[in-house]
Design a protein that fits this description.
Glucose Oxidase, domain 1, Aminopeptidase, globular, 2 domains, about 30% helix, 16-stranded mixed beta sheet, alpha/beta, disordered N terminus, two-stranded antiparallel sheet, binds zinc ion, 17 helices
């Protein structure tokens, strides 16, 4: 609606600003291009980004010695010390104004020991963790219980006024156990039944309503005692093992003053099989319930069933760490403006209950992206002339725990966010060779992509939207926390058309990674890796940051972007708003 209001004023603004701004833009780009095209300026920097360096850093960070880089473990110390040492070696300044390379991130650690069961149709349904379900309580309490709780099926569990959608219809679920479907409802198009209705929930692309984090947030808002999501591999975007492998171990949340008492006591997933067993025991069919959940007039379905959960929480409070370094800008005024490159250094740590391999090395996720961050940092130090604005290199903690390090930085920024022009995030580099394209997650959101498209063209490449928007990758890495705070954020991923390879070459590799290695101990550096594509991608991201650090133009969210309003409200106070 806000955009609409904005659009109302469009004609007046356009006549003024257009001629003004288009001449300005032309000028700036000419200036930018001249600066950029003075290749002597950037060649040494670009050349410093090499496959051997990316591989070296990745191997160190993903080595068994780093124990899977779990927050609050010896693996954290290894990763944080390595990053600090590398930033110091590059001669970069401490990124924290307190003179250190560290931002402490207070977090609450909890390890859940769970018991659960259902009673339905007069029969007890046993639940085994982690095979049938996983559950945690993010309430910072030693034990939590939900006994004989009424179970209600609430479809997708979504309240989306912009789509006229409400799965609760004012049915009171306070103190009850709600069972929900994952992702958004795939609403068929009335005009073309085989197709999805693109006016509802973004059609194929997952909206934030589809994310598990949203499901638990709305459950808390509704006062549910327990919230259970039914796991289905396709709509979830990953196999059940990803959950059973991590939920039974230590998890974290950012410290909150109320110790998370506002959250539902129990947050859980169950397998499709167990969900079917529960519904059948009450004489209901999962398929029929799922079909009914696609209708706008869906009503919550109370089951003749009860849920029982007991969780014993092992608790601890820690200060995990974001590691941050700064290349201070050369311009006396513009050095107070920033571009932030991010990559999460953390992964899933060690699981001592496993027999053979206990370490989640996280080579692709995200030792590779962190190696990329170090290579970009090095590249900026190789510039004969420092850029006008300052560039920050921020390795965040606890991404695997819910983007916690990025969330903490974005709500406790070391430098003003309204002076932060852009965030460029890396999470998993290309390991399968050069590509003809690069993928933009959340394509069409900001003008940072326009710069990316121009620089990609110089590499004879094009930018393309993500091939699997239904997986909701836009909400699954650290840029999302910056975007939520209004900072124009770019999340570029490797291309999908490998040079001189069959069209499905990349898809096969990515599907195999998701099925076999994603969040598994087998995510290790592979002999087959070819990092030439990763180096090309990093050089591209270097050029994007370099142009923004020297540019006249403040990157902006595009008019249709959900994040524009936040940025506008943030910038109205500063003189840069309508430059
Ligand atoms: Zn990751």
């Amino acid at each position: 609606m806000k955009n609409f209001f904005w659009l109302l004023a469009l004609p007046a603004l356009l006549t003024f600003s257009c001629s003004e701004s288009s001449r300005q833009v032309a000028e700036t780009e000419d200036k930018d291009k001249t600066a950029v095209n003075d290749s002597t300026n950037v060649e040494p920097a670009l050349e410093s980004i090499t496959t051997s360096d990316v591989l070296m850093h990745t191997k160190v960070l993903a080595s068994d010695a780093f124990e899977g880089r779990g927050p609050g473990t010896a693996g954290e110390d290894s990763a944080v010390n390595y990053l600090t040492r590398q930033f110091k070696k590059l001669g970069l300044k401490p990124g924290n104004p307190d003179g250190t390379y560290i931002q402490q991130v207070p977090m609450m650690g909890f390890t859940a020991r769970t018991e659960a069961s259902f009673t339905a149709g007069g029969k007890k349904i046993k639940l085994q963790s982690p095979d049938d379900y996983v559950a945690v309580s993010r309430r910072f309490a030693p034990s939590v219980e939900v006994k004989n709780s009424d179970i209600v099926f609430v479809g997708y569990g979504i309240v989306a006024p912009e789509y006229g959608w409400d799965d609760y219809k004012n049915v009171d679920v306070k103190g009850k156990t709600i069972v929900m479907l994952i992702n958004d409802p795939p609403i068929p198009s009335p005009a073309a039944p085989g197709k999805l209705d693109t006016t509802m929930f973004g059609g194929k692309a997952m909206t934030y309503y589809g994310r598990w984090t949203y499901k638990y947030e709305i459950a808390a808002e509704k006062g549910a005692a327990a919230a259970i999501i039914i796991h289905e591999t396709e709509p979830a975007g990953y196999p059940y093992e990803v959950l059973s492998g991590s939920w039974n171990r230590e998890n974290f949340d950012t410290s909150t003053s109320n110790k998370n008492m506002h959250r539902a006591a129990i947050e859980a997933w169950i397998t499709t099989e167990k969900a079917k067993q529960l519904f059948n025991a009450d004489g209901k069919s999962f398929a029929a319930l799922k079909a009914s959940a696609l209708r706008k007039d869906f009503m919550p379905v109370p089951l003749n069933a009860k849920a029982n959960f007991t969780i014993k929480n092992e608790l601890r409070e820690i200060d995990s760490r974001n590691v941050v370094a700064k290349l201070e800008g050369a311009d006396p005024e513009l050095k107070e403006e920033y571009i932030i490159y991010t990559a999460h250094w953390d992964h899933l740590g060690k699981d001592t209950t496993l027999t053979d391999d206990q370490i989640y090395n996280g080579a692709l996720d995200n030792a590779s992206g962190t190696a990329g961050l170090l290579e970009l940092a090095e590249a900026f130090t190789q510039l004969p002339e420092k850029p006008k604005r300052s560039v920050l290199f921020l390795a965040v903690t606890a991404e695997e725990q819910g983007l916690l390090g990025a969330k903490y930085y974005a709500s406790n920024p070391l430098y003003p966010l309204n002076k932060t022009l852009a965030n460029i995030n890396m999470d998993g580099l290309n390991t399968y060779g050069p590509t003809e394209d690069v993928v933009v997650i959340g394509y069409g959101n900001s003008t940072v992509e326009d710069i990316l498209a121009e620089e990609a063209q110089k590499q004879d490449r094009r930018i393309v939207p993500e091939p699997t928007p239904e997986k909701g990758y836009y909400y699954r890495s650290d840029h999302f926390e910056f975007a939520k705070q209004g900072v124009p954020a770019l999340y570029m991923k490797s291309g999908v058309k490998a040079r001189n390879r069959p069209d499905d070459y990349v898809k096969k590799i990515q599907d195999e990674y998701i099925a076999k290695d994603y969040h598994k101990v087998s995510d290790q550096v592979k002999e087959s890796w070819n990092l030439e594509g990763a180096v090309e991608d990093l050089r591209l991201l270097f050029m994007v940051g370099y142009r923004i650090a020297n540019g006249q133009q403040y990157p902006e969210w595009k008019p249709t972007s959900a994040f524009k309003a936040r940025r506008d409200s943030m910038l109205t106070t500063t003189e840069h708003a309508h430059q």
